Amino acid sequence: MEPEEREDRTPLLKEPQPDTVPACCSARYNLALLACFGFFLLYALRVNLSVALVDMVEPNTSLAKNTTSNVCPEHSSAINAPRNTTGQKYSWDADTQGWILGSFFYGYIITQIPGGYLASKIGGKLLLGFGIFGTSVFTLLTPLAANLGVGYLIAVRALEGLGEGVTFPAMHSMWSSWAPPLERSKLLSISYAGAQLGTVVSLPLSGLICYYMNWVYVFYIFGALGVLWWFFWMFLVSDTPETHRSISHAEREYILSSLKDQLSTQKSVPWRPMLESLPLWAIVVAHFSYNWTFYTLLTLLPTYMKEILRFDAQENGFLSALPYFGCWLCIILSGQIADYLREKQNFSTVCVRKCFTLIGMIGPAVFLVAGGFIGCNYALAVAFVTISTTLGGFCTSGYSINHLDIAPSYAGILLGITNSFATIPGMVGPVIAKNLTHNVRSTRVRNCALCSMKIPLIRMSTWNEGSPFKNRFHPFQSRS
After folding, report:
1. Which of 226, 331, 374, 477 has its CA 20 to 30 A from that of 88?
2. What pTM was estimated for this model as a whole?
């Protein structure tokens, strides 16, 4: 793939560059902000079930039934009962809950590669817009599906996954036409940081909605907001700078001139060279490894906070959101730092991507493994999970953007390929964790702390040791 080689050798653009256009009120940063709100809602729609499920399941059939001798003691003077108890309760055992939480990813994995391919053909605007719109509509139908039966709920969640599966490849495809090379880290970190912000807001907000209202409103409120966002997206966004209605001439020329040697003119997709590319498969390994822990925490952290650490409903939502607030800050700051190092300090793109991926992979592994041995020290448990998730934010400016570095014309398809493999942890992680903690028989409480994360952590650390930073299998290995 010759365009990859040229980009890899000249990522810092040693040749004279076009004058930059101010970021304030620019079309490219407006796109980043609107995308940020889109991914905010996308992850709010994805994680709200993790909180609502705690309130949907009858207490005597929850995970706590099997771990009463191993959970931590109550640490607050009183745990208030929810003010609203009108929500329907379901007799779902731990296995069923695991399948419900994982069902989203069975749809999500199907549309990754088709989403990247379609985005390269028809543009990312329609694909991303209707992906979030469809997810919102099915979210509105979630309470009805739950009443009809667990099979209907699993089907609706899988359909939500189908809609969300096209979103990240579509956004990567759009940025291949919108992001100047030296602004990639900043623009992509702003847009994708919305995912973490959505988690930060939706976890505590979902808990409050369950506490004061009814769990069904968790799905109604976020679903309605997603439909509202769709109207703004369709009206304000264009696939390319050339078709944007209000972009300034200076900004259009700046973006087009900075990308003129970046994009391929080849009409067909070079599938074979892609699949034979070692850098691509190394990104697959890195993406898979990171997502195992990320998705396990995303779906099971509220359950861990309630059943193991025994925080009440209000504390649960806020403490479950704290790690993702740290990650959101880290994503924003690391994006600024990455482009500063590349543009002002003359660090190579290869070096920056390596270092940020290293921090974002090893850091979370160390703190989560340590978290498995701290027992019922509540402050340390929350601190370790928060630090771990925060450090993971460095990966956004590491391997997560590397698709645009190695082949910007096919970035959406490349992300679809890597994200297909990276979705597998979301499918099997919750099921495995729920089964591993179905009957916890250890007599020592310390062995139960973070027990729902231990096996995924071991699996993640095994991948980390072998792949993304080892010799010839390095995703950012220079080919010059």
Report:
1. 226
2. 0.73
